[in-house]
């Protein structure tokens, strides 16, 4: 099975039908998306197609990128561009196999194909009978198509797995950030191409660009002798490999075992004549080390003052993803917060100047930059144990480079106020719930998650207004008092609503007097804080109102909200 020439990917067409076609179908203007049976497969398949485009069609510079965005290739032209790499994308057979060990690994014990799925219980979970929620035996037969995606998904996301079991190039369970046009009716080509970078931007320091070839073992590790990391000095550093290797990283050693017994795929439900039920896996695969920066993943410095320490890839965390993470995903701030957005994001925003020039030449690219979205997805991992999968979309605004710092300051101001409100809300709920809140145990992160989710649309609306204010590069921008005021009112409304919903969750007649007093006292404190009352309690709100240029008294609702307690 060849992953470049055979119809193995399910594409969703404009008329709603799903058809299995080769990767070149992404150039068909009637194709809108992929339709994989699992969320992690969907994210991985997008990255697979982006990696193919980056490998076969890397533009020389930004001008070439813009030209190709305006004039996509036909399906036949893309087939022709992919053809030279076909020998590196064979899934089975006697020669090199896609993302598999060149060694057949006949000296290791066979294991279930379910081991390729990140959310499958591990050996210890099965041995200790702790697979309570994700059971063993749910995946025993997999079609070659799903096996290929499971293999690719594992290699690019490989989590910690114990001694000798290598972690992925960007750390276990990394976040991925992709750029999308806001118009969901755009063909798949126009949704993938914004994530492809010119040759001048795709590499890292120390790497030298050269045209990719199918037999390049420094690009596709599976095309050469297996890299084994059983001793010191075998680490894989960025300067040792091709600039595009990050898209095809291979930390794990696998061999898929195909058989000739008919079966039904436990993942997609299709019948297959060459299923994969077993595989061989061996330790000591490629051990990635050094200053790796995957183009599609955001990073951060734990201590911005220590530039000699390697940045860490951003990963999913309990509580999900939302606008509080937006600055770190979009706005580079290495010196203060340590935020290093994905290089594909920073390069896209830098292209804003090129778009302005293109518009002067009569070309229409600006819509891509004025109305773009950021798709963020990835696992929330606890070492080798997945706790959840997150996938969200956020606005991606482009402003002139001269105004980047202003946008960062404005966004930080708004997010900081939301964080203060969330922290105060959480603490006052603890005071309402517990007689000794300082001794209360348990996870309160759901309060933060609900608050940020409830205020997300208001933030994105404010973000759009910020970007419009900063559109003119020659003007001195000022964010209006009304935008500040609307944001403050949205936060205040949701904080009070969530407090009332959470604190008074049972019938009042069943509560003891002491509990009612705690609830009333906590709500009174919360409202005083939100109103900016008092020199100490409302200091944060007062400062925000002063900087924003609006009067707090004019922002307070007419009715007496405190009577609701």
Layout of helices and strands:
Blueprint: E1 9-13, E2 18-21, E3 31-34, H1 39-56, H2 62-70, H3 75-82, E4 110-112, H4 123-127, H5 144-157, E5 176-181, H6 188-192, H7 199-202, E6 253-258, E7 263-264, E8 271-272, E9 276-282, E10 299-300, E11 312-313, H8 326-330, E12 339-340, H9 343-350, H10 352-360, H11 366-370, E13 372-382, E14 385-396, H12 404-433, H13 445-454, H14 456-469, H15 481-503, H16 513-531, H17 539-548, H18 552-555
Antiparallel strand pairs: 1-2, 1-3, 4-9, 5-13, 6-9, 7-8, 10-11, 10-12, 13-14
Helix pairs in contact: 1-5, 12-13, 12-14, 12-15, 12-16, 13-15, 14-15, 15-16, 15-17
Structure description:
By secondary structure, this protein is of the alpha+beta class. The protein has 18 helices and 14 strands. The protein has helices spanning about 40-55, 60-70, 75-80, 125, 145-155, 190, 200, 325-330, 345-350, 350-360, 365-370, 405-435, 445-455, 455-470, 480-505, 515-530, 540-550, 550-555, and strands at about 10-15, 20, 30-35, 110, 175-180, 255-260, 265, 270, 275-280, 300, 310-315, 340, 370-380, 385-395. The protein has a three-stranded antiparallel β-sheet. It has a three-stranded antiparallel β-sheet with strand order 4-9-6, with helices on one face. It has a three-stranded antiparallel β-sheet with strand order 5-13-14. Strand 1 and strand 2 form a beta hairpin. Helix 15 (about 480-505) runs antiparallel to helix 16 (about 515-530). It starts with 8 loop residues before the first strand and ends in a 10-residue tail after the last helix. Mean pLDDT is about 90; it is low at about 125-135 and about 555-565.
